[in-house]
Amino acid sequence: MSPQNKMSNATAQAERRQRDRVADCEVAIVGAGPYGLSAAAHLKALGMDVRIFGRAMDFWASKMPSGMLLRSPRVASNISDPARTFSLDAFESSAGVPPRAPLPLETFVDYGRWFQRELIPDLDLRAVANVRRDEMGFRVVLEDGEEFQCSRLVVAAGIGSFQRIPPVFASLRPSQVSHCYQGRDLREFHGAQVAIIGSGQSALESAALLHESGAAVELIVRNPVLRWIGGHSWLRHLGPISSMLYSSHDVGPAGISRLVAAPSLVKHIPLRIRDKIRTRAVRPAGAKWLPPRLKEVKATTGRFVTEAASVGQTAEIKLDDGTYRSVDHVLLGTGYSVDVSRYPFLPQELIEDLDRIDGYPSLGAGFSTSVPGLHFIGAPAARTFGPLLYFVAGTEFASRELTSHLARNRTVRR
């Protein structure tokens, strides 16, 4: 056999070996919050080989203020499973927990962990340290150094990396400023003076919790008035007409609520209009059960902070009207800004190949990205599919859309 023929034969053999190789698993999911758990449950039910990483409900358990109540109604707080069997009601019944509305954070965390134990008992608690592309899909490196290969990677890592911290507060000492999503025990501020920046649910509820913990609280709000969800309550008591105006998810005002409940339709709306729908549906506002708890909380509206500095043991902030506040702590209820480049496990070379819109990944069918085999679900998908993907209620659509797409494009494993 000639050297050329030998080389061709060796190449063919190498190609056959490459075709015969399989990844260690079909799908790896990064994140074990509601979206990751739901996606894993749906994909496993399809018979896919799935590995999921992270501590179940960790962000909700360790980064949300203790004592918080969920803004979403109970019916919109179910984590989706294929048979719709493992609902919030089912958990409460099995655990002997009395149903409550609004839903306490602690109950929701317990529900998510029960969901995980029942449907994903093989959850891997290790964190993903790094991922990189290879010829078979992705090589995933875990926090302890173990590596494995997967054909597809689903990022369901939540919003923990996306805290929005306005630059004006950068000069304050870390002990004098924190974000609502840092998991501070608000009871430690008993007797302290605290300024809260923001007018969304996290800021307003934190103000109530701080006041009830014995802190002296002032809300500083850029908007001229505080807004409350469900202000036009009469629209919700019109029988069939109300059903046409509002979905059970309760995301957005009349009309928009019904549109938001159809992410497949929202995806086809021009981006400029889609953004308007998204920002209107989730504009800063508080749940209707908060005002009675805030009656004794000082609220300064129509003002914003222009300067902030550490002066001794206090934080001194200056407002745009020239007035000053000296407080022990500044709590930022300033929400989050999605930017997937801030996920620490995604390398820069992968980010550079990812089509993005202001930090959000540009997504196609099945939450697919411009990087083959890479998918994002949860908040990073909201720029494409609409604001339902910011909420637990979006797990139903996300998991079914993802599973359907992966089933249609499944690679046969040898």
Task: Please explain how this structure is put together.
It is a single chain. By secondary structure, the protein is of the alpha/beta class. The chain folds into three domains: 10-162 and 337-408, 3-Layer(bba) Sandwich (FAD/NAD(P)-binding domain); 167-227 and 284-332, FAD/NAD(P)-binding domain, CATH 3.50.50.60; 233-281, no CATH class. 29% of the residues lie in helices and 19% in strands. It contains 13 helices and 16 strands. The longest helix is centred in the first third of the chain and has 18 residues, at 3-20. Mean pLDDT is 91; it is low at 3-8 and 10-20.
In short:
The chain is of the alpha/beta class and 414 residues long.
Please tell me the total number of domains.
3
| Low-confidence region ranges | 3-8, 10-20
Assigned CATH class of the largest domain = Alpha Beta
The CATH topology name of the largest domain reads: FAD/NAD(P)-binding domain
Q: How does the helix and strand content classify structurally?
A: alpha/beta
Give the overall shape, derived from the CA principal axes. Answer: globular
How does CATH name the architecture of the largest domain?
3-Layer(bba) Sandwich
| Oligomer status | single chain
- Assign the CATH superfamily of the largest domain: FAD/NAD(P)-binding domain
Helix-strand string: HEHEHHHEEEEEHEHHHHEEEEEHEEEHH
Biggest sheet descriptor: 6 strands, mixed
Query: Cα distance, first to last residue?
Result: 32 Å
